[in-house]
């Protein structure tokens, strides 16, 4: 007697996660706020780098396009403000992590070092944002003073209104009303496919076709007797 095979185990989202990232660790109470703090710090760092790229690109075009440079510096200041807001969120989550650790002192063996590293990273980014903000406002003030004194000449067409794009015409499909459709619909199927049948090519049949009848044995008799005797 053969032993029935067991059904294969189905892998869900948890099985895929274990296969990709190894064994799944239990998330502690302080893990969620700490993870949000790290995410906010990384987001702030990316915004800072985007601000630096925008400032360096605008400084190269300050003499040829001073008006465009002022607009770009204004956008860079907005990015820097967003980075500062992310640091405020990170500070709040670091504080929440510290409070969670204080509630469970038996798990606070290695946590203070992790929180201290995140706090040091937050302080470094805060100081970096302050230095970038000083340079950004100085560069913006220099460009504005150059435009005010006439040292920098605005580029032609800088104060023109942006061209409005031509409206796109989108043809929406017109719905077929039920009553009109039923009124135009032919009741018989042959009438509905008459146009299709008229386009099909038919092979003309011969005028006279003689086919022997089928016998009870399963074979048709010959057209002429086999024995002439």
Description of the structure:
By secondary structure, the chain is mostly helical. The protein has a domain at 27-149. It contains seven helices and no strands. The chain has helices at residues 13-21, 31-60, 66-103, 111-149, 178-184, 189-192, 194-199. Helix 2 (31-60) packs parallel to helix 4 (111-149). The longest helix has 39 residues, at 111-149. It is elongated and about 105 Å long. The chain starts with 12 loop residues before the first helix and ends in a 30-residue tail after the last helix. Residues 1-26 have low confidence and may be disordered.
| Cα-to-Cα separation, first versus last residue | 69 Å
Extended strand count: 0
Q: What is the succession of H and E elements?
A: HHHHHHH
Structural class: mainly alpha
The whole-number mean of residue pLDDT values reads 75
What overall form do the CA principal axes indicate? elongated
- Tally of separate helices: 7
Radius of gyration: 41 Å
The major sheet is characterized as: none
Low-confidence stretches: 1-26
Strand content: under 5%
Helix share of residues? 55-70%
């Amino acid at each position: 007697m053969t032993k029935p095979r067991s059904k294969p185990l189905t892998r869900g989202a948890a099985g895929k996660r274990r296969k990709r990232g190894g064994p799944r660790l239990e998330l502690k109470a302080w893990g969620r706020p700490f993870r949000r703090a790290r995410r906010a710090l990384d987001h702030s760092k990316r915004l800072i780098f985007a601000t630096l790229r925008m400032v360096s690109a605008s400084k190269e075009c300050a003499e040829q396009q001073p008006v465009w440079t002022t607009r770009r510096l204004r956008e860079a200041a907005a990015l820097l403000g967003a980075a500062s807001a992310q640091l405020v969120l990170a500070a709040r989550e670091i504080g929440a992590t510290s409070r969670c650790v204080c509630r469970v002192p038996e798990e606070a063996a290695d946590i203070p070092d992790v929180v201290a590293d995140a706090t040091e990273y937050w302080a470094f980014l805060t100081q970096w944002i302050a230095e970038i903000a000083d340079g950004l406002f100085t560069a913006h003030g220099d460009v504005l003073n150059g435009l005010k004194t006439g040292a920098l000449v605005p580029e032609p067409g800088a104060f023109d209104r942006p061209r409005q794009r031509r409206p796109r015409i989108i043809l929406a499909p017109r719905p077929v009303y039920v009553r009109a459709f039923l009124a135009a619909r032919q009741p018989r199927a042959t009438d509905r496919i008459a146009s299709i049948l008229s386009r099909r090519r038919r092979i003309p049949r011969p005028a006279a076709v003689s086919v022997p009848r089928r016998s009870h044995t399963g074979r048709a008799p010959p057209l002429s007797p086999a024995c002439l005797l």
